[in-house]
Amino acid sequence: MDFASLVRQHQAMVFSIAWHMLRDRAVAEELAQDVFLSLHQHLAELESPEHIQFWLRRVTSNRALDVVRRRQRRPMVSLENAPEPVALTPTGDPLLGTALKKLVAALPEKSRAIVVLRYQEDLDPAEIARVLGIPVGTVKSQLQRALALLREKLSRSLGELGI
Amino acid sequence: MNLEQELKSALRRQDPSPDFAERVLARVAAAPLRTAPRVSQVWVRWLAAIAAALLLAAGGLEYRHYRGERAKAQVLLAVRIAGSKLNKAQRKVHMLAHRSNS
Amino acid sequence: MKAVGLPVALLLLAGTLPAQQVKWNFDKLAARASDSTEVSLDGALLQLGAKFLSDEDKDQAKIKKLVGGLKGIYIKTFEFKKPGEYSASDVEPFRAPLRPPEWQRIVGTHSNEDGESVEVYIKNDSKGIGGLVIISTAPKELTLVNIVGAVDLDSLSELGKHFDFPEVEVEKKK
Fold it and tell me: CB contacts < 8 Å between A and C, how many?
């Protein structure tokens, strides 16, 4: 497959990981572009379509984590005002979806990456552990904690909205 | 409410801007050539096969290479784990120092 | 030797003894853990692995330099199914060998948010740092790291940060 086709095949995946981690469309697109530029430079080293997909998930997640951590030292982006990109297919309850996305974006950075890889990419804990280079036990414990936190914060948010 | 289903729905993949791919390709075209020329995958496989045959003939060399690669993987894993834990502690200390100074 | 001279002699000897791996007994925890990871690299294996690190890859070149002066790296990670399957008293025996004057605790952190704690100990010798121990506890995970030799803490920490969030990394799919 030529490079242009690879970009078109994987652009939604790469952009969405960055978007759900960063909640800033412009920064997410910039990061996604950088990832594909790196892919072009390293394509010869990648052995299969699966390897390419793994590589893209790994590099995108790690670069997004890097941005999140830099931001924590110098907050710049208002998450409240982040515009919503168009979904590929209609989501369920838009109000709930928006609340969830914002709550996910407020999770600690590693938990955020784990939740995005689990629910956007449908990866299991072992695959997430390989992508992020952390023990699978850490993935499982952080995922459980993140879900508990999201449940608690969501029920509070929805309660405030009168839902 | 099924939270996991709602998360899958909320975190569904979304497309970037319509001209995203074109912008990437434009950047690639404008970037200076930094990579080694791509070698045909067929040649890479032939070279790997010849190399493996030579190594097999050398016997002991192959085993040492295997051990070396395994040791390298262990070194990388060890540094990753140790470095990650140490960095975590260091970050916490810096955070506390920053808070007490501000 | 006079009794009063013996402690002094031992102290002097402690500074000149070859750096050694901390001896821990993992049997009790191993019986309760759902999973464990072990890395055991003595001097010879470390140097063998270092030879295969690439000089062209920035991170690998840094690691090569870092491990060049080390005599061993020993890591044990235990994972547990549920929080509470190990306690503070289970961790205490791992701290026992790390006492002054040979060892010094330089960092102790705890996060209420995720329940994780990290303690860092360094071993003093005549040339500076002769070893490092990290004890990291989390509700369902315990990690023990022992590095023997003159370890560059800043480089190791920087690599750890970089490894957690690498700019470019390729892993061969098995």
Answer: 63
Give every residue of chain C whose pLDDT is below 50, as ranges.
Answer: 1-17, 165-174
Which alpha helices (H) appear in C69-152, and where do they start and end? 88-95
Give the chain C residue whose CA is nearest to the CA of A52.
Answer: C170
B67 located within any domain:
yes
A45-78 per-position pLDDT tens digit: 888 888 899 999 999 999 999 888 877 665 444 4
- Provide, as residue numbers in chain A, all residues whose Cβ is less than 8 Å from the Cβ of C138: 138, 141
Which of A141-155, B19-33, C63-77 is least confident?
A: B19-33
In a domain, B37, yes or no: no
For residue B78, list chain C residues with Cβ-Cβ distance below 8 A: 39, 41, 73, 75
pLDDT at A85 over 50: no
Q: Give the rounded distance of the alpha carbon of B29 from its chain centre.
A: 24
B23 close to C (CB below 8 A): no
B71 touching C (Cβ < 8 Å)? yes
Instruction: Flag if A85 and B13 touch (Cβ within 8 Å).
Output: no
- Nearest alpha-carbon partner for C135 in C125, C146, C151, C124: C146
Question: What is the ipTM metric for this complex?
Answer: 0.81
Sequence-separated (6 or more) residues with CB below 8 Å from residue C135: C91, C94, C95, C118, C119, C121, C142, C143, C144, C145
The verdict on residue B65 lying in a domain is yes
- Which residues in chain A have Cβ-Cβ distances shorter than 8 Å to B34? 41
Q: Which structural domains are found in chain A, ordered by start?
A: 1-79 (1.10.1740.10), 92-163 (1.10.10.10)
Q: Locate B3 and state its tokens.
A: 């939270």
**B80 and chain A in contact, CB less than 8 A:** yes
pTM: 0.47
Q: Tell whether B47 is covered by a domain.
A: no
